[in-house]
Amino acid sequence: MKYFGGCDVGSTYTKAVILDENGKICADTTIKSKINSEASAKIAMEEVLSKVGLKSSEDLEYLIGTGYGRNKVPFADENISEISCHAMGVHVTNPNVKAIIDIGGQDIKGISIDSDGTVKNFAMNDKCAAGTGRFYEAMARSFEMSLPEFSKLSLSAKNVIPITAQCTVFAESEVITLVGEGKPMNEIAAGIQMAVAKRCFVMSKKAGATDSITLTGGCAKNDGLKAAIEHVLKLKVVDLDVDPQLMGALGAAEYARQKGMAKK
Fold first, then answer.
1. For 54, left (φ over 0), alpha (ψ -120 to 50), or beta?
2. Is this prediction's pTM over 0.70?
């Protein structure tokens, strides 16, 4: 059996996937990214390689690096942008999905997928951290909660307390003030989710979304955000059968499979 790898070195998490020659996921892992991107890639790849009984990345037919630190995957045969890899990852998971909002550690992307899994169009907001993974980490800290706890908090809110600040720093200060005033925490959380959903509006239009969209990246696991996006954007959020945080690594591995099989 031949194996192919994808390594997605993100700013917050590093993910790795190994596929067999039929495109089946044989192993995957997600680790917290280290300060050094190369170290992150090595640790993640060692984990997935051991799961399939391989000793080193040299035992793979082809390996592609992607993500924030894609140029720091020293054992990769080549690297491909995370935009292309997320599109391909979603395509092989659910070819009916044609639009993505990818919320990473420090940016938000809207991606339109063509019929072959390539990118038709995209837009990216990387000028401000508001609405990204780091933003949600800051919000969870303000509530003295874990991210999973915070992601569900807004679902019980009957009202929404708007968050007016557009900047992560000012939004965190605003939230701390509201919490200190004794405002209902679930209603504050609902305001946060609505504010992020509104930031995703332009991205969804750029992605060409008409009736449905899917979310990728770690924030795709945020149930409150999914509900807010459906409410604000009037779009159905399609859940993927594979961990949405793995989409970049999966797409990279699929590109590796296609390129590796073509070498025959």
1. beta
2. yes
